[in-house]
Design brief:
CATH superfamily of the largest domain: Nucleoside Triphosphate Pyrophosphohydrolase
Number of strands: 10
CATH architecture of the largest domain: Alpha-Beta Complex
CATH class of the largest domain: Alpha Beta
Structural class: alpha+beta
Helix content: 10-25%
Number of domains: 2
Strand content: over 45%
Shape: elongated
Largest sheet: 4 strands, mixed
Length: 180
């Protein structure tokens, strides 16, 4: 087993409301010294929730994604607020974005997007037994919801406007959990 590299120095490079960038100077066990940059998340990460409307359909949201400059279909998602657990954030985001809460909220996975460059993690949940329980959201425009048949997930994955890797992974995790 390899020895972890020694952190020689950490220097802030830039900071925004969502993350900061740090330069990290490292020395590896073989004596090699090098410099990496990493994104450090402000907060405890994020949640993604796969709402099951019934045994046959999932509920998606459609919202503007500035990174790709278009509207995207995805599952409910959002940041974990200070003082919240991932599960509390999942319930809150589900209520804000769809108007529903879940009688059952099951953790499916906690994933890193780019562990070589970031500490950002997303906790993925499966929400079942939905019931009406709206909360006001913080989105700049009302979100649209769309039902999608569980039997047609391959077609969803093929859509150009369903490109968030976390959402694609969530379809596989959900299918695996439902079929187990």
């Amino acid at each position: 087993m390899s020895t972890l590299p020694e952190i020689l120095n950490t220097t802030p490079v830039a900071t925004s409301r969502l993350f900061s960038i740090e330069q990290v100077d490292l020395r590896f066990s073989n004596g090699t010294e090098t410099c990496f940059e990493r994104l450090v998340s402000q907060g405890a990460g994020a949640v993604m929730v796969v709402p099951m409307q019934n045994e046959q359909e999932l509920l998606l949201i459609r919202e503007y994604a500035v990174g790709v400059e278009r509207y995207e279909l995805s599952f409910v998602k959002g940041r974990i607020d200070p003082g919240e657990t991932a599960q509390q954030a999942a319930h809150r985001e589900l209520r804000e974005e769809t108007g529903f809460d879940a009688g059952r909220m099951e953790a499916l996975a906690a994933v890193s997007l780019t562990p070589a460059y970031s500490n950002y993690r997303t906790h993925i949940f499966l929400a079942q037994d939905l019931f009406s329980s709206p909360l006001p959201g913080d989105e700049p425009e009302p979100l649209q919801t769309k039902s999608w048949p569980l039997s047609d997930l391959p077609a969803l994955r093929d859509r150009e406007d369903f490109s968030d890797a976390r959402s694609i992974l969530a379809t596989y995790l959900t299918t695996e959990r439902i079929n187990s």
